[in-house]
Write a structure and sequence with these properties.
This protein has 115 residues and is of the alpha+beta class. The protein folds into two domains: 33 residues, no CATH class; 68 residues, no CATH class. The chain has four helices and four strands; from the N terminus they run H-H-E-H-E-E-E-H. A hairpin with a 2-residue loop joins strand 3 and strand 4. Helix 1 runs antiparallel to helix 2. The radius of gyration is 20 Å and the shape is elongated. The mean pLDDT is 85.
Length: 115
């Protein structure tokens, strides 16, 4: 890599990123890779954990509304990471970075099971 082709401001930006990465690596370990990636790409980390019997296609609009209501942000579900979690039992957990909201579907399940 020839660093002579970069100007001073570009090298300072790279230095600042590397310094931040080093500090993050010391403080939070493996998660620093993820933090730097999303920061450099100007993206938000979106994770949705759901009970295995739920069909994501059926609740996508509901999930978008949850993110709008709880995090005051519009999301693109195509960029979200979906993770099945059998321990949730009619729950959905939504994450935006390190913030999390648990949403219960148990009440809805009980109403539907009576029909």
């Amino acid at each position: 890599m020839d660093i002579n082709k970069y100007n001073k401001s570009e090298l300072e930006q790279v230095y600042a990123i590397l310094k931040k990465y080093r500090d993050l690596k010391k403080n939070i370990g493996k998660k620093s890779d993820e933090v730097i990636y999303f920061e450099l790409n100007n993206e938000k980390k979106i994770l949705i954990e759901y009970f295995t019997d739920l069909k994501i296609e059926e609740i996508k609009d509901f999930l978008k509304n949850l993110y709008k209501k709880h995090f005051d942000t519009d999301i693109d579900l195509n960029k979200a990471t979906f993770k099945a979690n059998p321990d949730l039992k009619w729950w959905v957990r939504i994450f935006l970075w390190d913030d999390m909201v648990d949403i219960s579907f148990e009440n809805i399940y009980n109403k539907i099971s009576k029909i």
